[in-house]
């Protein structure tokens, strides 16, 4: 390209038949599904295009776009009833091939301003993923119980970084960072041959709940195709979850003869907001963490090094979608602090 600009294009595709087989066995009513016998088959393709070059004497840019598409197996459980068998069966005899379909697009822009003794870098990114996972929970050729899990995820990040570029014995780096993760899950159980009758249910749901309206294959009945494909959906995971970080960070290294001292500090404000759309409960956690780091390195004459590192990390708290009886909020997961000491 002209004016010192460059472009790169990369694309790929792959396919795999796998080794698992769905024989599509006949059900109690003599009917059989017509699934692809290669139940473990997967296909994936993607591309990435990137461009980079100088905008002016002080500013350069790098931009990229990525797309990825995947379809493959999901939760291919195999029921092995012989406890003495050491063989791994390759037969997955289910009504529907359990699949995972995922589509991801992302874009990134990096801008670098070069000044005397310092670079200023801005990195912006956005990723959007749509995913649907389907599972045949009863692991049988019959229409009984399935699960569908549609999930949308969006991630945005922004970093502003200042970096020293001189040749001095002290080098430093500092900046600000922000990220936002948004997830929406609309997962449902699919009860086949089921309908509501007043406060009761027919089919497998009625049988599982011990109701007098229990009917269908579990009750010894033989169903028509229309009867077994009649279905009712109940909520499984219906949630919204937003997680964010806002951080400031700084690092420096100082060299004295054969020794190097490193110091670092990150101040991280995190927040987790989770909502169970089925129960209507919503809860929020947010805290600020102070995370220091110290390292000391000795460069030896034979080219090896000896170093010591002490740092502090953490795993943010959050929520699952469970609520205790009488509670008006979600069951919380506490944050974990992770001190690290290493000598090598």
Q: What does this entry look like structurally?
A:
With 344 residues, this protein is mainly beta. The protein has one domain: TonB-dependent receptor, beta-barrel domain (Maltoporin, Chain A), CATH 2.40.170. Helix content is 3%, strand content 60%. The chain contains two helices and 16 strands. Strands 1-2-3-4-5-6-7-10-11-12-13-16 form a twelve-stranded antiparallel β-sheet. The longest helix has 6 residues. 12% of the residues are buried.
Considering the protein shown, what is the CATH homologous superfamily?
Answer: TonB-dependent receptor, beta-barrel domain
Which architecture does the CATH hierarchy give at level 2?
A: Beta Barrel
N-to-C terminal Cα separation, in Å? 47 Å
List SSEs in N-to-C order.
Answer: EEEEEEEEEHHEEEEEEE
Name the quaternary structure. Answer: single chain
Question: How many helical elements?
Answer: 2
The helix-and-strand class reads mainly beta
Uncertain regions: pLDDT < 50 for 5+ in a row? Answer: none
For the record, the count of structural domains works out to: 1
Output mean pLDDT.
93
Global outline: elongated
User: What is the share of helical residues?
Assistant: under 10%
* Residues in β-strands, percent: over 45%
Compute the CA-based radius of gyration. Answer: 28 Å
């Amino acid at each position: 390209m002209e004016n010192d600009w460059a472009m790169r294009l990369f694309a790929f595709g792959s396919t795999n038949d796998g080794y698992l087989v769905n024989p599509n066995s006949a059900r109690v009513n003599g009917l059989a599904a017509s699934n692809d016998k290669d139940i473990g088959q997967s296909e994936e393709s993607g591309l990435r295009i990137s461009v980079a070059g100088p905008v002016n004497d002080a500013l350069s840019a790098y931009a990229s776009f990525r797309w990825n598409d995947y379809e493959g197996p999901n939760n291919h459980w195999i029921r092995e009833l012989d406890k003495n068998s050491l063989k791994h069966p390759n037969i997955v005899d289910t009504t529907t091939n359990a699949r995972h379909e995922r589509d991801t697009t992302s874009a990134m822009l990096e801008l670098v301003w070069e000044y005397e003794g310092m670079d200023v870098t801005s990195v912006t990114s956005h990723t959007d993923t749509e995913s649907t996972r389907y599972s045949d929970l009863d692991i049988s050729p019959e229409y009984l119980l399935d699960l569908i899990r549609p999930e949308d995820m969006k991630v945005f990040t922004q970093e502003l970084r200042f970096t020293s570029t001189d040749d001095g014995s002290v080098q430093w780096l500092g900046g600000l960072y922000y990220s936002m993760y948004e997830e929406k899950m609309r997962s449902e159980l699919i009860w086949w041959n089921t309908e509501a009758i007043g406060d009761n249910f027919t089919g497998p749901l009625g049988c599982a709940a011990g109701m007098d309206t229990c009917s269908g294959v579990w009750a010894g009945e033989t169903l028509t195709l229309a009867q077994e494909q009649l279905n009712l959906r109940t909520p499984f995971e219906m949630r919204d979850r937003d997680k964010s970080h806002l951080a400031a960070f700084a690092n420096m290294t100082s060299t004295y003869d054969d020794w190097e001292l490193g110091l670092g500090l990150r101040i991280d404000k995190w927040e987790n907001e989770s909502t169970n759309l089925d129960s209507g409960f919503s809860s929020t956690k947010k805290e600020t963490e102070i995370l220091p780091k110290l390292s000391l390195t000795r460069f030896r004459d034979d080219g090896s090094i000896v170093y010591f590192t002490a740092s502090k990390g953490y795993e943010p708290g959050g929520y699952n979608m469970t609520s205790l009886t009488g509670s008006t909020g979600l069951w919380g997961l506490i944050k974990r602090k992770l001190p690290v000491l290493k000598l090598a």
